């Protein structure tokens, strides 16, 4: 059923990740064939086989992992890529903390409008700056910047573009997400219409002053209306991307904090779908996913390191994950970040409310220490 020719062929054509599972699938095929002769026992056997078992079998005990005190921090980012506006600007940035001893995970989502004083730019432009200076250094520069701001080491980074994000979720047949609140966003940007004049002439535009506040009114054709109902929803790739990217919803769902929570919900939903037997016991999913990720996933994690960390991450309960909220808060309860006057930086930016990053760094230290 699984022979050397099969795996050698896909090792060359697809992600080398597949070759690591050759012996694992041969063992599984033998076990399933054996118990398949006793149909009454097959369901019980399938329940005993978990993603963690497979990853444990494939993982190398000698794998070298960059870590501090058995703790690993991974910076996860998403970019538009392709023909999206600002294709190499990081639209989402999350620092994931994994304790290899307790198997606990915590997240620190970083709003893309955070101002980086040393770079004189927003944090979402750091990856682009690195890539413009020298191809392949975007991850290095972003890791260093985040580490300096948060006062925590960033051991690895992983970046995926919107196209691969959507395709992976569609490949999985969609994901189930618990939408906390019904919300509408009337200003979600339509790809490819960023420069559409919406029927206006050049002469009319000369008399208009376009700002972030009135762009929807002046160019309504550039945007679409999003609506999500409260409750368990099955989202395809396109819907999931809109769910995590929505920034202009009315009410609480329009905040950076709500957006960050939605991003973590998607991560959790993808992880839950990947651990279903019909997915992780089907080699064809690995083949198709590796093809979709090729050229659209950038990371400094090696294959062995991905497998080694994956076996710990896959067994964590993300429903009770702890998150540090970096937002501006409310009038009654100010957040850790604040929005200074527009004139000070020439655009909407976020800076530490305390004036420096010390308070935020202390809270991150407390969060990571409680995960032991």
**Can you tell me the CATH superfamily of the largest domain?**
LCP protein
Write the H/E string, N to C: HHHHEEEEEHHEHEEHHEEHHHHEHEEHEH
User: What's the number of helices?
Assistant: 16
Strand order, main sheet: write it out.
11-6-1-2-3-12
- What is the average per-residue confidence, as pLDDT, rounded to a whole number? 81
Number of separate domains: 3
Question: What is the structural class?
Answer: alpha+beta
The tally of beta strands, per DSSP, is: 14
Terminal residue distance: 43 Å
Question: What does the main sheet amount to?
Answer: 6 strands, mixed
Q: What best-fitting shape do the alpha-carbon axes yield?
A: globular
CATH fold-level topology of the largest domain: Aminopeptidase
Helix content: 40-55%
CATH class of the largest domain: Alpha Beta
């Amino acid at each position: 059923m699984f022979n050397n020719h099969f795996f050698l062929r896909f090792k060359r054509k697809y992600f080398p990740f597949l070759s690591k599972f050759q012996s694992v699938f041969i063992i599984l095929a033998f076990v399933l064939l054996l118990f398949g002769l006793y149909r009454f026992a097959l369901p019980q056997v399938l329940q005993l086989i978990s993603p963690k078992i497979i990853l444990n079998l494939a993982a190398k005990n000698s794998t070298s992992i960059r870590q501090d005190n058995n703790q690993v921090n991974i910076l996860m980012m998403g970019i538009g890529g392709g023909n999206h506006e600002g294709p190499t600007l990081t639209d989402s940035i999350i620092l994931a903390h994994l304790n290899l001893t307790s198997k606990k995970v915590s997240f620190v989502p970083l709003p893309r409008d955070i101002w980086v004083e040393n770079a004189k730019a927003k944090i979402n432009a750091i990856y682009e700056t690195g890539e413009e200076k020298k191809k392949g250094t975007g991850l290095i520069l972003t890791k260093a910047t985040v580490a300096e701001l948060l006062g925590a080491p960033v051991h690895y980074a992983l970046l995926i573009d919107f196209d691969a994000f959507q395709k992976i979720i569609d490949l999985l047949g969609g994901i189930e997400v618990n939408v906390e609140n019904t919300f509408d966003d009337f200003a979600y940007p339509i790809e490819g219409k960023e420069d559409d004049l919406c029927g206006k002439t050049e002469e009319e535009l000369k008399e208009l002053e376009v700002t972030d506040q009135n762009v929807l009114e002046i160019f309504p054709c550039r945007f679409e209306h999003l609506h999500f109902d409260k409750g368990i929803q099955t989202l395809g790739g396109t819907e999931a991307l809109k769910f995590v990217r929505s920034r202009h919803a009315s009410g609480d769902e329009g905040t950076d904090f709500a957006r960050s929570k939605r991003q973590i919900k998607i991560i959790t939903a993808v992880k839950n779908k990947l651990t279903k037997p019909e997915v992780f016991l089907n080699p064809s999913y690995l083949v198709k996913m590796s093809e979709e990720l090729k050229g659209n996933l950038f990371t400094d994690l090696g294959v062995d390191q991905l497998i080694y960390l994956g076996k710990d991450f896959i067994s964590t309960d993300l429903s009770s994950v702890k998150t540090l909220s970096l937002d501006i808060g409310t009038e009654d309860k100010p957040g850790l970040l604040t929005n200074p006057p527009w004139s000070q930086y020439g655009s909407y930016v976020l800076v530490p409310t305390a004036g420096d990053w010390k308070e935020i760094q202390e809270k991150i230290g407390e969060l990571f220490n409680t995960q032991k």
